[in-house]
Design a protein that fits this description.
about 15% strand, 18 strands, globular, Aspartate Aminotransferase, domain 2, 2 domains, Aspartate Aminotransferase, domain 1, alpha/beta, binds pyridoxal-5'-phosphate, seven-stranded mixed sheet, about 35% helix
Length: about 425
């Protein structure tokens, strides 16, 4: 890999651990120096050295309407002039809550946080507080932010409960988290035969953090059934899928009702945000009404709230029909390009989110995803960059098409992709 020093990367490395504020940005899995971006507009990003990219990362899915969408920019500007944080309740947070509840009828009450991590952490605390149980179940390859209880990998051999996936996570805490393979209904049923005292199951109902891996309907149904039988709360982490796959998220698509829902990314319109919610009965266990503590200085801050409300007020069933309608023929062409150059690849998608799994035919869980060709992906990523396409710098991520990607943008992207795959 040729190392060209991008403007600013040297300084970034002098100031941040690994040069970054979030690890995947460091390009470790693809090699080479990260590209520093200075501007986004619509479907495009511009780097500090003035290269223009068609963006398929879209801030990890947060930019559903594209970069610097006009109405959102105007709303942020207007609010900024009137103050950005008061540390009080405001009408802006209620506006956004009403828009969320319209799409997610099972959310009767919610709380805003400043990140998805915080929302997931708080939802788990709530589940533990409500049930009086400590142990939780998650799935391999699902990501729910970086709270201690959630940075746990499957225990080896016959051990059911996990070991820390990060230094600094106490082993005693990791032992409270069990991990099972995604999409394995049998493993879920077997697990609940032996375990009755589980506070909650947390799952991405459409996984986006091992690449896009939709849940099998019977898997989510098994989770719902077993949780109901065991008095365990079912938490859907829809931080990505929430306002991405359709109006009402994965829970509407699959017609499965979780006890708690976690949202983030899109609902902040590009500003920091997270949310968790469920029935009034459950949510009223939170302080000040109940005994589960949860708080945040900038939770529900006016800027994130107006940016989010501006995005959500533009969404409807028709919006998603049009967005998905744009994605389908594009992805069909992407598949044809890989076929044309005889590059084995699985293009797995759900609406406007997709992943190109190189060197694979079937990805239903994390161990399938790990069989993909990571070396080839590193080459592919740099060929994409060279041709002006920005995709996430890791094989195990989702790519996103936004409202701002025009048919012309997508046609251009296909031409660039053709060149990249040809050179692969
Ligand atoms: C991004 C993400 C999170 C964490 O959100 P942050 O805002 O990065 O803390 C949690 N769950 C899922 C499914 C995510 O994709």
């Amino acid at each position: 890999m040729v190392k060209v020093m991008s403007a600013g990367w040297k300084q970034a490395q002098e100031n941040f651990a690994g040069g970054v504020n979030s690890p995947v940005r460091a390009f470790r899995s693809v090699g080479g120096d990260p590209v520093l971006m200075k501007k986004g507009q619509g479907a495009y990003l511009w780097s500090t050295d003035n290269q223009k990219f068609i963006d398929f990362c879209m801030s990890w899915g947060a930019m559903l309407l594209g970069h610097a969408e006009l109405k959102t920019v105007q709303a942020i500007q207007a609010q900024a002039a009137n103050g950005t944080s008061f540390g009080t309740s405001t009408p802006f947070e209620t506006n956004l809550a009403v828009l969320i509840k319209k799409a997610f009828p099972d959310i009767e009450k919610l709380r805003f946080t400043s990140s998805g991590t915080e929302a997931a952490m708080s939802a788990i605390r709530l589940a533990r507080g409500v049930t009086g149980r400590d142990r939780i179940l998650k799935f391999e390859g699902c990501y729910h932010g970086h709270a201690d209880s959630l940075l746990v990998k499957a225990g080896s051999g016959l051990a059911t409960f996990g070991t820390p996936d990060s230094a600094g996570v106490p082993a005693d805490l990791a032992r409270m988290t069990a991990t099972l393979p995604y999409n394995d209904s049998e493993a879920v049923r077997h697990f609940f035969k032996n375990e009755t005292k589980i506070a909650c199951v947390i799952v991405e109902p459409i996984a986006g953090n091992m690449g896009v891996v939709p849940a099998k309907p019977e898997f989510l149904k098994a989770l719902r059934d077993e949780c109901s039988k065991a008095g365990t709360l079912l938490i859907f982490d829809e931080v990505i899928s929430g306002f991405r796959v359709g109006y009402g998220g994965a829970q509407h698509l699959y017609q499965i009702r979780p006890d708690l829902t976690i949202l983030g990314k899109i609902i902040g319109g590009g500003l920091p945000v997270g949310a968790f919610g469920g029935s009034t009965k459950l949510m009223e266990h939170l302080s000040p009404l109940g005994r589960v503590y949860q708080a945040g200085t900038l939770s529900g801050n006016p800027l994130s709230m107006v940016a989010g409300a501006n995005t959500l007020s533009q969404l409807s069933k028709i919006f998603y029909k049009q967005l998905n309608h744009k994605a389908e023929p594009f992805l069909a062409q992407v598949r044809l390009i890989f076929k044309k150059y005889r590059q084995p690849a699985l293009i797995q998608s759900q609406g406007s989110m997709f992943t190109i799994f190189l060197g694979s035919e079937k990805v239903e869980n994390f161990s399938d995803a790990k069989k993909c060709d990571t070396k080839k992906f590193a080459r592919f990523f740099h060929l994409m960059l060279k041709n002006g396409l920005y995709i996430p710098p890791s094989l195990f991520e989702a790519y996103f098409i936004s409202q701002a990607h025009t048919e012309r943008d997508l046609e251009q992207a296909l031409k660039k992709l053709d060149k990249a795959v040809k050179a692969l």
